[in-house]
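Summary for the steering committee. One of the milestones for this cycle was to obtain a three-dimensional model of the protein with copper (II) ion bound, which we needed before selecting residues for the alanine scan. The sequence and ligand used are listed below.
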Amino acid sequence: MMGRLPIAKMLAATVALTAVISAVMLPISWNGQQASTAAAKIDTLLDVMIVISAFVFALVVVVLIYALWKFKAKPGDESDGEPIHGNTRLEVAWTLIPTIIVLFGAGYSWSVLNDIEEPTKDPLTVDVFSQQYAWSFGYPGKGNAYSQGELHVPLDRQVHFKMHSLDVIHSFWVPEWRIKKDNVPGITTTAIVTPDKAGAYQLICTELCGFGHAAMRAKVVVEPPAEFRRWVAGLKQKVPPPYMETIRQNTETDPIPLGAGGA
Ligand SMILES: [Cu+2]
């Protein structure tokens, strides 16, 4: 039975359909402007995954259409289908191919993550506090200067964001940076970003956290280091004591040692 399948034609149809889907999907700018050193690498990873997914989808569609056409019952045929007792070649193929695809995806993703999170010598540490439904920020290198609803970071310097939640799970997302990280009560998580384009962006909570979730946003400003230093120096408030207590009580999940945190 297997020998009579038009494998070459089906493969050609699969490749052609993959090309068509990819041609439609790849030109779309899924995540908008790129504004961190991670953005281009993550976008390339996404593109590779789109092509692989298109191939798998195309393969399933081609085999499905072929089967519908080739093995359709004749009108009036009420008999049972042929009994099948397994097919070793097919089973090896459908185990081996997905395994290779998944291992490739895992290895490639791991190497991209490793690359974009590679710590630099002089990172800036910023505490991120999230609570229903607001963001606020602390600068431990600047005497725990405190800002509500507005985050400033210097251009071209790696930032280690230390995430703290004061109530439920929130998630830190600046689409232009491509980085997304959960803020989880009880633990301190870390997001590492090197913003490489000055401008104003939006921090969005991307974990449904309650009634005001959709409005849980903050302004993000990426600016030259001198301007950033001026802005931090002008902050009047300090991180409130209960927030400092939250940091102290949280378990740090990040294996990377804390940077000096100098501003
Ligand atoms: Cu939230």
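Key point for the committee: The chain has five helices and eleven strands.
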